[in-house]
Amino acid sequence: MAKQARAAATRHQVLEGAALSFEKLGYGGASLSGILSYADVTKGALYFHFESKEALAWAVIKEQHAMAMLAAQRVLATAQSPMEAILLCAKEMARQLLTEPIVRAGVRLTLELGTSRGPATDPYIDWTDTLVALAGKAREAGELRGTVDPAALARFLVSSFTGMQLVSEALTGRSDLYERLADMWALLLPSIASPDMLPRLLELAALRDDVAS
């Protein structure tokens, strides 16, 4: 058990080092020697867990996706309504981008390695599916206007958040990400939320502190 724990810790250490390298340099710019430097492990330890830079990149994407899905499960277990869950999931994603190198690297790699098919598209598909289900429940509960199509809303939210965080990264290193997220909701919610839910949702969207952790 102790040996397994050490192996798991070393694997995670390699992943974190790879994430720091991929986040800063991208897939093309990162090198195994640089990853070794960031991870502070031996070459043997790296190759024990990962056979190549490509394998490391896919592992970072997989870990980022797992972190996002676990956070979504926590939000779903505690949110008071489907619409609140949608807002809190977005806020949790913003928090992870600001605090988790693996998440930042995974998002960058997903964009760089993404194709019309393959593992790099899984995070977008699963995120969209989660939002479709939540939006459907929100409409059934009267929290969304009846004219709102859950699938169209989910696709719009995933695309909007992705573009917003990229622009935030380019302009401010994501330091204004919470503010840009609040702007998105302030513009969108009045057109999709039921009037009785709107004040509570706008209040929740404007909160700067991460209430989803």
UniProtKB/TrEMBL annotation:
The keyword Transcription applies. Keywords: DNA-binding, Transcription, Transcription regulation. InterPro entries: ArpA-like (IPR047923), CprB_TetR_C (IPR054126), DNA-bd_HTH_TetR-type_CS (IPR023772), Homeodomain-like_sf (IPR009057), HTH_TetR (IPR001647), Tet_transcr_reg_TetR-rel_C_sf (IPR036271). Residues 8-68 form the HTH tetR-type domain. Residues 31-50 bind DNA. Pfam families: TetR_C_45, TetR_N. The keyword Transmembrane helix does not apply. PROSITE patterns: HTH_TETR_1, HTH_TETR_2. PANTHER family: HTH-TYPE TRANSCRIPTIONAL REGULATOR YJDC, TRANSCRIPTIONAL REGULATORY PROTEIN. This is ScbR family autoregulator-binding transcription factor. It comes from Rhodococcus jostii.
